[in-house]
Amino acid sequence: MEGSLVKDNPLLLPLNNEKTVYDGFVTVQVTQLMYVGYIISPHKNDSPKSLEKCTLHCSWQLKHLLHGYEHIVKQRLRQSADLVSFMLELKTVLEVGLKSRPECSSIPPPQYYSQLISEMETLGWDKLLFIDTEFRTLRLKAQDSSGRQHILTVKLNTLTEAPECSADLPVPLAITWTPQSTLEQLHNQFLQVLESLTEFWDVLDEIDRNTWILEPEKPSRSNTMRRIAIGNNISIKVEVDPRHPKMLPECCLLGAEHVVTLLRNKLNANMHSWNPDSSVFHNLRDVLEIEFPSPATHGKSGLSVECGICYSYRLEAAIPDQVCNNPHCGQPFHQACLHEWLRALPSSRQSFSIVFGECPYCSKPITVKMSAQKS
């Protein structure tokens, strides 16, 4: 009996001389799925015809797989003639359980864990920020040449299949992978991507340090847009190209029309003098012929004006971006607030996606374009 047991279950070994206590692994199906557990067999003086006194202790994976089949296991323990027969029947139950629970078959073999540990030792454990309990999802840290910290999230299936990789980047993360690739090679590719974007982040970091950013409220490394305060109710939205960060960005001036027109004329007249060897911040300052309010010289409270309708600055993710063009008014509004206000007025009218009405403060003509969800 012992020979057959060892032959069929080479990783299930006796722990005592009487060979009544076994500990180890059970191999199920050709996927080499391993389940930890140990079996305490009945004493030799007990009836050889029954394993009724046998107890089975196992890992959570095995318990999960046997859920719903416990009565069958207990029945086979009572009816099996010996441990060899019981182990054969237990494997049959496990295979049935695997077929009915496909998610269990995703548990990797022991070689997966040993290879993963070996690759992490080569990469360096100091690069590991997080690993989940299933050893499938890893978060690796990396630093670019300017000292910025970045995180690469890696979701593994096996160590030979291409993993799912993601990071906070302004461009798609393209990773080259072969069955021979390692985590160290993956990490090195990520570092190369970071270096290709270093100039882009340098440009935006300089803007963030020297201006008041109205949007986004908390910029991430993937954001390419900045809405920069120029003055009270006046701002410029710039879209920086990650591949050509020092070239003239796409610009959109926001605010009262009489002020926007003046700045737009300066931008059009001076854009030929844009110097790609200089920074975007200095170029914008020179082309617009202005000094941007900075955190060192101005308080943001003077630039963050509340909506004249809801009396708040932020409405979910939006800030007031509609301004009355009357130079003596200049009251800002959220687009959604102004649209709802004008739509409720009997005197307002609509032409296509534009609503025409009167400013709630000065009664001068004002218009608002309906947002996409309102059109």
Describe what this molecule looks like in 3D.
- With 375 residues, the protein is an alpha+beta fold.
- The chain folds into 4 domains: 2-106; 110-196, Ubiquitin Conjugating Enzyme (Roll), CATH 3.10.110; 199-301, RWD domain-like (Ubiquitin Conjugating Enzyme, Roll); 307-369, Herpes Virus-1.
- 31% of the residues lie in helices and 22% in strands.
- It has a 4-stranded antiparallel β-sheet with strand order 1-2-3-4. A 4-stranded antiparallel β-sheet has the order 5-6-7-8.
- Helix 1 packs parallel to helix 4 and helix 3 (70-79) runs antiparallel to helix 4.
- Residues 307-363 form the RING-type domain.
- GO terms for molecular function: ubiquitin protein ligase activity; zinc ion binding.
- One of its GO terms (biological process) is interstrand cross-link repair.
- It is found in: Cytoplasm; Nucleus.
- InterPro entries: Fancl, FANCL_C, FANCL_d2, FANCL_d3, FANCL_d3_sf, FancL_WD-rpt_cont_dom, UBQ-conjugating_enzyme/RWD, Znf_RING.
List the helices and strands and how they pair.
Elements: H1 2-8, E1 12-14, E2 21-28, E3 33-40, E4 55-58, H2 60-66, H3 70-79, H4 83-100, H5 110-123, E5 128-131, E6 137-143, E7 149-155, E8 164-167, H6 183-196, H7 198-210, E9 213-215, E10 225-231, E11 234-239, E12 250-254, H8 257-270, H9 280-288, E13 322-323, E14 332-333, H10 335-344, E15 349-351, E16 354-358, E17 365-369
Antiparallel strand pairs: 1-2, 2-3, 3-4, 5-6, 6-7, 7-8, 9-10, 10-11, 11-12, 13-14, 15-16, 16-17
